[in-house]
Amino acid sequence: MTPGCCSITTHTSTLISRLYKTYKMEKENPSTFYPFVFSDIMGLEESKGVIVHDVKLALKGRVKDNYKLNPEHTLSEGDQYYNTEVNPNDKVHVLLCVIPADTVSHMKEEVTRKIQEIRRAASELGIPQVAIITKIDEACPEIKEDLKNVYKSVNLKEMMEQLSGNVGIRRNCIFPVRNYFEEINLNDDVDSLILSALRHIIDFGEESMNHKMSQSEG
């Protein structure tokens, strides 16, 4: 069984991200992939974001790949993209919320409410919840000066605590990352944060999956 992660964002969705799309990570050998997938879903904008009910359906494995999300109409049974026969690989094993650092302190109340509702639904399904704070260098001058200051930054610590308090995701399940933007070459410090977050997400997914398998066998 392949651990699956569903990622939602709080910022503006592009046309591409309106699709419920699953991504695999290819290994060095062509046509071979790592044993986990990421499913991207439309953002949680205040007025034109994804409908919470559709996210709940995705958590349960009811949304087929490439479904075009509609902020005004929810997916329903009978639709060609409604998955009537769910297998374990269709279900989500980790809920990932991606939040730009410069939006944490002024997140709209409606967006916060959506995250809380989705998080509660995930908890009821036994799905762990994780958050990634992106663009940390743009919100914290000391990190922009030196990325190694990431865990020394008082600003970042307060930001993570605020996010945890607002949406209910545990502090030790929130991971800061710096985005690649104009760089041509890879940067070890940037990669270290990204890979650390990825490793924790995979671990959470495996733990969740193994726990559910042990319960079904018991």
Automatic annotation (TrEMBL):
<dbReference type="GO" id="GO:0006955">
    <property type="term" value="P:immune response"/>
</dbReference>
<protein>
    <submittedName>
        <fullName>Interferon-induced protein 44-like</fullName>
    </submittedName>
</protein>
<dbReference type="InterPro" id="IPR027417">
    <property type="entry name" value="P-loop_NTPase"/>
</dbReference>
